[in-house]
């Protein structure tokens, strides 16, 4: 962005670093926020003074909707698409499916879902 333009998320005017950023799953955000929360607890006598309401609500949200809790399981889920030839993770799954035949789509999706179920089962 040029120096004259101001960042504005409402108008999707965001900084360059966000244009190249990868999306995180709720379970990844949960791990990050939990780690930050633990750091805040260790550095303050009263950790609630340092935790904003937005931070607290965000942490509650991602914990509620995080399917995977174990860091190893989260890593396996993040890497799962690469086993099926998807280079950029879950975001490009649609492109991956468009390049294959319908029978291969169903088979690949079924295999991936089974693999994800196993990760969850053994978490």
TrEMBL record:
Q: Which family does it belong to?
A: Belongs to the eukaryotic RPB4 RNA polymerase subunit family.
Q: What name is this protein filed under?
A: DNA-directed RNA polymerase II subunit 4
Q: Which GO terms describe its cellular component?
A: DNA-directed RNA polymerase complex
Q: Which UniProt keywords apply?
A: DNA-directed RNA polymerase, Nucleus, Transcription
Q: Does the keyword Transcription apply?
A: yes
Judging by the UniProt lineage, the source's domain of life is: Eukaryota
Encoded by which gene? NRPB4_1
Boundaries of each RNA polymerase Rpb4/RPC9 core domain copy? 16-123
Where in the cell is the protein located?
Nucleus
SUPFAM superfamilies assigned to the protein according to its UniProt record, in alphabetical order = HRDC-like
């Amino acid at each position: 962005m040029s120096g004259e333009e101001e960042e504005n998320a409402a108008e999707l005017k965001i900084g360059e670093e966000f244009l190249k950023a990868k999306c995180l799953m709720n379970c990844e955000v949960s791990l990050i926020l939990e780690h930050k929360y633990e750091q805040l607890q260790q550095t303050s006598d009263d950790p609630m003074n340092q935790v904003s309401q937005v931070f607290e609500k965000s942490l509650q949200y991602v914990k509620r909707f995080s399917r995977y809790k174990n860091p190893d399981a989260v890593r396996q889920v993040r890497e799962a698409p690469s086993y099926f030839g998807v280079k950029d993770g879950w975001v490009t799954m649609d492109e991956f499916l468009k390049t294959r035949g319908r029978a291969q789509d169903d088979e690949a999706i079924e295999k991936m879902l089974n693999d994800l179920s196993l990760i969850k089962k053994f978490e």
